[in-house]
Design goal:
Helix content is 46%, strand content 10%. The chain contains 22 helices and 19 strands.
Length: 658
Amino acid sequence: MLTLSPGGFKDRLSRSLQNRYAAYILFIIIMLIKLVLMHYNLQVKNIDMNPVDYIIAIGSLILVSFWTFWLPMRGRLSALMLLNLILTGIIYADLVFYRYFEDFITVPILMQAGQVGSLGESIRSLIHWRDLFFFIDWIVLVPLTVSLVFRKRRVRGYMEGPIFGTTSRRKVAVRRFITGTIALLLGFVLTFVPIKKISKTWAVGLFESNWWNVTLYNVTGLIGFHGYDIYRYAKDHLGLQPVLDQEEVDQNRKWFDKKQNELSTTNATFSKYQGSNVIMIQVEAFMNFIVNQTINGQEITPNFNKLINESMYYSNFYHQTALGRTSDADFVTQSSLLPLPAGSVFTRYPLHEYDTIPTILKEHGYAANVYHSYDSSFWNRHTVYKEMNYDRYYSKKDFEQDEMIGWSVSDESFFKQSLNMMKDVPEPFYSFLITLTSHHPYALPKERQQLDTGEFQGTMFGDYLQSMHYVDQALGKFVEQMNTQGLWDSSILIIYGDHDNSIKDKAMYEQFMDRPLNDLDMEQIMNQVPLLIHLPDGGSAGVYPEAAGMMNTAPTIYHLLGISPKPYFLMGDSLLGEQKRLIPLRSRVFSDNEVFYIPAETGSFENGTCYNLSTRQPTDINACRQGHEETNKLLKISDQVITYDLLKQYKASARDKK
């Protein structure tokens, strides 16, 4: 137990804490410092804490703590310390989460909390020594609070005041209630008045649309963001299920009807590869900036570079993922819909109806299997893949754990075993493979490191390059085995990256590319992944620089196989069609072949930046207005389709008409 020496710092602090308001004021100051410290650790561009943000932060802290005034002194000290522990935990968890995902923890993410234990080294690599400052106050306050709360009374009335009669006790209770109520009203005013004013000016529609979480945070502050997130989740998932206005249901249906007619346009490549096997590989953290690049005279991806010469390679292909990361890449690619603004479709709406590649190909006589050497429950895959109608999900239990690297068996072993499993699958088949070796934090064993990363040696960026060089070698052996098994000339092979590598240090990329990078360069680097499509006869080979995205993958497969898109609800266009494409990202960034729009964190369209892709310099913001509006429309339609299970309604309606 802590001993408080008379006249010492701890003694003076303990006496101060016994004051009716001192402990509360100290709590507000300490937690405000931690919120500010977290904010500047985020390093969010163009978002600084201004006086209004401080007011909202103080108001939010009062709102979560006003009730402590209703407690007696000992109870108040205990409650304030408990709040300190809880809020510090939330603040720090958000900071670590942001370092990887560039977003904040939400209720849907907490539903995936069981996956945290599997992140291992990824989480440890996101924790910095300077983070100790978030917890330094605990060294004094925790033992001091315990001492004050549980210390025996040495004098009459210590910590509780003098013994009161019934009337006096009633007065004390009334005083506590009034003080707490005044604090509640003050917190309400300080929090909601500024937020309401902001939402009526530059942030119009903030709470009506699915804004990016960082933009919400910019208005509400961290505590306000979590409060709104809880409210939003409760509204959507507790009590009656949400119902979309019939007018919007019908408008969305008309949009899909129009899209189906556009997709039905055929050309020389339509059905040219009918009956071919389809093998699609989703490569972990494979980014486009390393393709055709060398370091110290060595090609980083020599095998992939060689494949480009005889394949269709899309050099401006965007991953379109959000917080669901790998699961989002899977969902968007398979369904031709877009990810949710919060959480993963796989965990939030796994039982809703979607038109996915395995379901559609099985309707056309294909076998469909998915291969991923990890726990089948991760990202709720065991449930989702059953709903997608795969014949079988080959998960960790189906693979011999013969050569472990990082999260699971090496990609080389994974590829070899997966192709061996395909020997027993009747053709034509669809095989979807998800790799793991190149997962953050890219800890490749030294005996597997064959790349001379030079100045990047010992950095995570260097480790990433090593990891991707190894994965490229594994891909080369995969192609060799496809040839050996006779699959090369009878299969469409699709390879793409799932998302970025979570390394955001601009200086690293400038050093690697040996040139300064502007905001457009960095946005494209972090959002572009490679897409390669090799056709059985090597047809249509070449580099395609037009804007493309994951939502285009499924329609392209159907086009090549001659499957009419007419009955299906897809948002993307075939990459072999003639339609002008716009590629929307969840952050409301978008690109077409002429402009690239980067939104401001404030959410205001006018405050964003519109780049001319020919000059790669900012241009008139109005050149991006139409694309911005279309991006918002596409995101809204996709969100409504997923949230309200609209495809189920549309298909039921179509059956009734028959």
